[in-house]
Write a structure and sequence with these properties.
Distance between the termini: 23 Å
Helix content: over 70%
Radius of gyration: 26 Å
GO cellular component, one term: membrane
Order of helices and strands: HHHHHHHH
Strand content: under 5%
Shape: globular
GO molecular function: zinc ion transmembrane transporter activity
Oligomer: single chain
Keywords: Membrane, Transmembrane, Transmembrane helix
Protein name: Zinc transporter zip1
Number of domains: 1
Structural class: mainly alpha
Number of helices: 8
Largest sheet: none
Number of strands: 0
Subcellular location: Membrane
C-alpha cells in the first residue's frame, strides 16, 4: 500500500462507519416514510458492484495468482464465495416461504373451526345446560392458537433478520478487506462501490430488525453496531494481511471479495428492478457500470505509466 493511499483508506473507514450507523438507526425515527430514491440508489449500486467485481477485483486477482499457478484459482474462489452467499440467502428465503405457506394453510382450518363452532351453537340451543361449557372451551382454544401462531411468526421473523445480518457481515468484511488491500486507484473504485450501497443496506437491515424485534431496542442497536463495524474491522484485517506482503494471500482475499461484489450486484439488480421507476433504475445501473469501466481505463493508463517509469 502506498503512503498516499493510507489517508484515503483511514478516512474511508470512518465515512463507512458513519454511513452504516446512520442508515441502520434511521428506521427507529422514521418507520413509515416512503423512500423512493433508495431503489434507484440500489440499482446504481448494482452496476457499481457487478462491474467493480468483474472488471477490477477479479481481473486484478487473476493476474496476481497467475504467477503462482496456471489454474484459474481466482475464478474458483469467486465462485465459491458466490455459492456461500447464495446458500445463506436461500436459507433465509426458504424460511420465509415456509412461514408464508404455514400462514396460508392456517386459513382453511380457521374456516372449518368457525363452521364447527356455528354447528355447536345450534346444538347448544337445543341443549342449554352444556352451552356455557362449550362456548368457553372454543374461545380458549382459538385464543391459544392465535397466541401460538403470533409467537411462531415472531420467532421466524427474528431468525430471518439474524440470517440477513450474517450475510451482510460477511459481505461487509470482504468489502473492507478488499478496500485495504488494493492500490490507490482501485481503492477509489472500491470506496465508491461501498458507499453506493452501504446506507441502503444498513437501512434495510434496520427495517428488518425494527419489524422483528420491536420493543427490544437494545438487540436492534447492538446488531446495527455489529454490522457497522464489519467493514472497518475488514479494513483492519486487510492492513494486517498486507503487512505480511504475501501476494498469494492478498489476491486470494481479493478473489473472495470479487465473488461477494458479483453476487451482491446480481441480487441488487434482481430486486431493485421490481416496482416503479423502471427506466430510472436502468439508467442508474448503466451509469454505475460506465463509471467502473471509465475508472478501469484510467487505472490501466496509470499502470502503463508506472511500467514505463520502471523501464527508464
Amino acid at each position: 500500500m502506498t503512503i498516499s493511499a493510507l489517508p484515503l483508506k483511514i478516512t474511508g473507514l470512518f465515512v463507512i462507519l458513519v454511513l452504516s450507523l446512520s442508515g441502520g438507526l434511521l428506521p427507529l425515527k422514521l418507520k413509515n416514510k416512503n423512500y423512493s430514491l433508495i431503489p434507484i440508489s440500489e440499482a446504481f449500486a448494482a452496476g457499481i458492484f457487478l462491474a467493480g467485481g468483474l472488471i477490477h477485483l477479479l481481473h486484478h486477482s487473476a493476474e496476481g495468482l497467475s504467477s503462482a499457478t496456471d489454474y484459474p484459482l481466482a475464478y474458483l474462489i469467486a465462485v465459491c464465495t458466490v455459492t456461500l452467499l447464495l446458500v445463506i440467502d436461500k436459507s433465509k428465503k426458504k424460511r420465509k416461504d415456509v412461514e408464508m405457506s404455514d400462514h396460508v394453510s392456517e386459513q382453511p382450518k380457521d374456516k372449518s373451526k368457525s363452521k364447527s363452532k356455528a354447528k355447536s351453537k345450534s346444538k347448544d340451543k337445543e341443549k342449554p345446560v352444556t352451552k356455557e361449557h362449550h362456548h368457553n372451551h372454543d374461545h380458549s382454544q382459538i385464543g391459544t392458537t392465535i397466541k401460538e401462531l403470533a409467537k411462531q411468526e415472531s420467532i421466524s421473523g427474528k431468525v430471518l433478520a439474524i440470517i440477513l445480518l450474517l450475510a451482510l457481515i460477511i459481505h461487509s468484511a470482504l468489502e473492507g478487506i478488499s478496500f485495504a488491500l488494493v492500490e490507490e486507484s482501485e481503492a477509489v473504485v472500491i470506496f465508491i462501490a461501498i458507499i453506493a450501497h452501504k446506507f441502503s443496506a444498513a437501512f434495510a437491515l434496520g427495517v428488518a430488525f425494527v419489524k422483528s424485534f420491536g420493543k427490544h431496542w437494545k438487540i436492534f442497536v447492538v446488531s446495527i453496531i455489529i454490522f457497522s463495524l464489519a467493514t472497518p474491522i475488514g479494513i483492519t484485517i486487510g492492513f494486517g494481511i498486507e503487512s505480511y506482503n504475501s501476494n498469494t494471500m492478498i489476491n486470494t482475499f481479493l478473489a473472495a471479495a470479487a465473488g461477494s461484489f458479483i453476487y451482491c450486484g446480481i441480487m441488487e439488480l434482481n430486486e431493485s428492478f421490481d416496482g416503479k421507476n423502471h427506466h430510472k433504475k436502468v439508467i442508474a445501473f448503466i451509469l454505475g457500470v460506465v463509471i467502473m469501466a471509465c475508472l478501469a481505463i484510467n487505472e490501466s493508463h496509470s499502470h502503463d505509466d508506472s511500467d514505463d517509469h520502471d523501464d527508464h
